[in-house]
Amino acid sequence: MEGADAVSEIVVRLNDVRLRRNGRPVLAGASFDVAQGEVVVLMGASGSGKTTLLRTIVALEPFEQGTIVVDGIALHGGGSAGPVVRQLRRKVGMVFQFHHLFEHLRVLDNVCLAPIHAQRLPPAEAEERARALLRTLGVDHRAHALPRELSGGEAQRVAIARALAVDPPVLLMDEPTASLDVDRRTELSALLRRLVSQNRTLVVATHDEPFARATATRVLRVSDGVVRAEA
Amino acid sequence: MFRSTRILRTGFPLAFSASLLSFPVGPGAAGQPAATRELRWAGDPEGGAPFVEASPSDPGVLVGFDVEIAELIARELGRVPRFVLVAFASIDQSIARGDADIGLSGIEDTPARRSVYSATVPYYRFREVLAVRDADAERLRTLSDFAGRRVGTLGGTIAYEILLAAEREHGLTAVSYDDDVHPYTDLVLGRLDGVLLDNVLAERRLRSVSGYVIQPDSVAIGQYVGVLSAQNGLLRDAVNEILLQGMRDGTLERIFRKWGVWNADQPPLYANLLAGEPVEPFTGSDIVGQLLGESGWSAAARYFPSLLRASVTTLVLSCLAMGLAVTLGVLIASGRVYGGRLLRAALTGYVELMRGTPILLQLFVLYYGLAAAVRLPAFVAALLGLALNYAAYESEIYRGALEAVPTGQLEAGRTLGLSERQVLTLIRGPQAFRLALPPMTNDFVALLKDSSLVSVLTVMELTKQTQIFATNIGSWVIPGSLCAALYLAMSLPLSALARRLEQRWKAPTP
Questions:
Q1: Which residue segment(s) compose the domain that A198 sits in?
Q2: How many independent structural domains does chain A possess?
Q3: A90, B419: Cβ pair inside 8 Å?
Q4: For a Cys staple, B11 with which of A29, A85, B197, B452, CB 3.0–4.6 Å?
C-alpha cells in the first residue's frame, strides 16, 4: 500500500490524548494524523485501546487531556460542549463491531432516520438516498427486513449504509471483519477502497492482519494506549 | 341502615364475612355457665350510635338499642348473647352462611328480606326525611323540588331506590354513599343539595354537623327488623314472641326511651302488630309496589340498564385514568432517568409515597381531605386518584424498560448526530415501549377492576351498582354473574387488543 504522501490535507488529528479508567491508563498520550483519502488501520491486541481510540474520536468517551480535531472541529480534554460534539458528529460516522442497528426499525428506516431527523432532509429524498446506498452495498433487497432477520454480513453493510447516509467525510469502523467469512472479507476490502475513491477518509480498528494488509494505505500499531507508526 | 364510616372496603362485601370477630358482650355474659348456649348476633359497631357502638367509657363494651334488644332476646331464650362483627352490607349474606343466628343493626324491613330470609316482626318505625342546607329550607321541601340537583343517601337501601325512582320522575341525581357521615358533610360543603336518610340518623348527625335542617314532611316510612336465615323459622318465631311481649309489657319502649328515639310513630306500629294486623315493609312511596314480590329476573331486567351505565362509567374512568397515568408515568420515568439529583430524589419520593400508601387513603385525602381547599367533583377526584396512583407504578415499568434498552442502541443514535431528545423519542422510547407493553396491559386490566374502589367517593361504577342490586334482591347470584360478565366483556377485548399490539410491535407490517 502506498503511504500518505499522495494526499495532503489532515482531516483527523489526535494530539497527546490521555484517558484513565478506574485509575488505569487506557490511552497514554495517543497522537496521530490521518490525511484525507487515507485508509488508516489501527492494529493491536485485544485491550490495547483500539476501540477506545475510535470511541474517543466520535466523542463517545470523554478524555482527560489532549486534543482531537476532525475536519476543523476540535474536542479538548476535560469535556466539550454539546453543540461542538454534535458538529463533530456530522463530520465522522461510526460502524460498530456489533453494528447496533436499531432493532425496532426496518432496514430502510434505520438508514433514513438520521438524514430525516438530524439533517432535516425531506423524507422522500432521504429514502431515495437510502435506497441508492443500499443498492451500492448490495442489500437493497433487504430494505424491509428487521435487523434481527439479517445475516452478519448483511447487517454490517446496512450499518455502513446507515453511517454513510449522513455523508460524513470520515468513517470509523471497529473490527469490521469480526462477523465475516473469508469471501466476505475480500468483498469488504474492495468496498472500502471504493469508498475512499469517493474522497472519504477511513480509520479502521482490527486485529485481522491479512485484511489490514489488503485494505490499508497505512497501518498504525496500538499498544498500551500509545499509537506508533509501523516499523 | 348502614351507619358507619368505613375506611376499608372491597368490591364484594362477601369478602368481609370471612374475617369475623366475635366476643361476648353484656354485663351478664361473664357470669353464665360455660355450657349455656349462645345467641350469636351480627352487627356493625363502626360509628353506630344509637344502634350498636363501642361504649365511650369502655371501648371493650358494646352499647346501643340493638345491643339491648339482643340481650333481651338472649335472656328470654336462656342463652348468652355473643356479638359477631360483620360489615353492615354483608350481614344478610353472613346470616345466610350461618356465621350468626340473627342480624340486628338497624336493618331495614324490605320485601327481599321478607322473601329470601326470615325477618322478625318490625320493632322500630322510622321516617325517611330530607335534609337541606339552612338557606334552602324554604325552597327545597319535597323530592319534586330537586330537579337538576344532587341528593345523597346510603347505597343499597330503600332510600336509594326512592331516589332512583325520583331521578326518572323529577330529574334529580341520586348519589350513593357508603356511610352516613359524608352525605351530611358534603351537603354542608355544597357537593349535595339534599340528603335522604332515616330520621334517627338525620337527627343523630345534627349533633356533630351543623348547617343543615331536616324537613318536617317524611318521604316514606319504614321499619327495622332482625334478620335470620330462611331455615331458621323456628327461632324467628320465638324471637317474634319475645319482641311482641316486649311491646306489650313496655320493655322495648323503655329501651328506645333510654336511647332518646322513642316517638309517636311506635305505638301505632306496636298496636297493629299486637292486633295481628299485617304491616307493609315500607309505606309512603310508589317504589314499594315495584319492589314487592319482584323476582330475581325481573329485578335483573330493571337493573340491567343501570349496570350498563355503571359499566360505561367504569370503562370511561379506567381509560381516562390509564391515559393520564401513562403520560405522567412517562414523565416521571424520564425525570428519574435523565433528571438532576434533586429532581430524581423528588420523583423517587413521589413513587414511594404512592406505592407505599393505600389507594383508598389517597382517594379519601383527594376527595374529603382537600375539600376545604379544593372541592373536586367526585368523578375528577376518582380520575386523579387512580391516575396519580397508577402513574407511580407505570413510571417504574417505564424506568425499567428505558434502562433495559442496550447502550449500543443509544450510542449508535448519538454518533449519527441525533440529539439526546431525539435519541429518547426515536430510539430509546419506542424500544422501551415494546418492553413495557405486556406489564402495561396487565396494569390496565388491574386498573379496570381497581376502579371499583372509587365508589367510596360516590362514583356509581359497576361493582357498587351490583352491590346495591344484590342487597335489594337479597342474592348475589344474578347480580354477581352479570357483573362478572360485564367486567369480562371489558377486559377480554383489552387483552386481545394488547396481544395484537405486541404482535405488531414485534414484526412491523411490510
A1: 4-229
A2: 1
A3: no
A4: B452
| Closest Cα in chain B, distance from residue A209 (Å) | 26
Residues B276 and B251 in one domain: yes
Test A117 with B414 for CB contact under 8 angstroms.
no
Distances (CA, A) of B351 to B61, B88, B221, B441: 42, 35, 50, 20
Contact state of A118 with B416 under an 8 Å Cβ cutoff: yes
Is the domain of B310 the same as that of B331? Answer: yes
| pTM greater than 0.95 | no
A-chain residues within 8 Å CB-CB of B431?
A: 102-104
Name residues of chain B where pLDDT drops below 70: 1-36, 47, 285-296, 474, 506-510
The DSSP output letter for A97 is T
Q: Give the pLDDT confidence of A21-45 residue by residue, as tens digits.
A: 888 888 998 999 999 989 999 998 8
Helix (H, G, I), strand (E, B) or coil at B210: coil
Residues 124-153 of A with CB under 8 A from B: 144, 146
What's the CATH number where B63 sits?
Answer: 3.40.190.10
**Same domain, yes or no: B264 and B311:** no
pLDDT > 70: percent of chain A: 96
Is residue B9 assigned to a domain? Answer: no
Which domain covers residue B180, as residue numbers?
A: 126-221
A residues 14-73 lying closer than 8 A (beta carbon) to B = 58, 60
pLDDT of residue B293: 54
Q: How far is CA A61 from CA A25, A84, A202, in A?
A: 13, 15, 19
Q: Residue B416's closest chain A neighbor by CA? A: A114
Give B510's contacts in chain A (Cβ within 8 Å): 144
Q: Does A86 touch chain B (CB under 8 A)?
A: yes
Residue B1 in any domain: the answer is: no
Is B491 found in the same domain as B391? yes
Measured CA to CA, the distance from residue B449 to residue A165 in angstroms comes to 50
| Chain B positions in Cβ-Cβ contact with residue A147 (cut-off 8 Å) | none
Does any domain span residue B144? Answer: yes
Q: Can you give B81-142 as a three-state secondary structure string?
A: EEEEECCHHHHHHHHHCCCCCEEEEEEECCHHHHHHCEECCCCEEEEEEEEEEHHHCCCCCC
Instruction: Specify the DSSP class assigned to residue B350.
Output: H
Grid coordinates representing B153 are 343517601
Residue A199 pLDDT level (bands cut at 50, 70, 90): confident
Contact B417 A106 (CB under 8 A): no
Give the mutation candidate from A88, A102, A104, A112 for the B interface (greatest B CB count, under 10 A): A104
Of the residues A51, A92, A99, A100, the best mutation for testing chain B's interface (the one with the most B CB atoms within 10 Å of its CB) is A100
- Domain contains B65: yes
B361-404 tens-digit pLDDT: 999 899 888 877 888 888 999 999 999 999 999 999 999 999 99
Instruction: Indicate yes or no: CB of A104 within 8 angstroms of CB of B507.
Output: no
Distances (CA, A) of A62 to A30, A91, A222, B468: 14, 18, 19, 66
ipTM of the complex: 0.91
Counting the structural domains of chain B, the total is 3
User: b/e per residue, A88-103, with b = 16+ CB within 10 A?
Assistant: bbbbbbbbbbbbbbbb
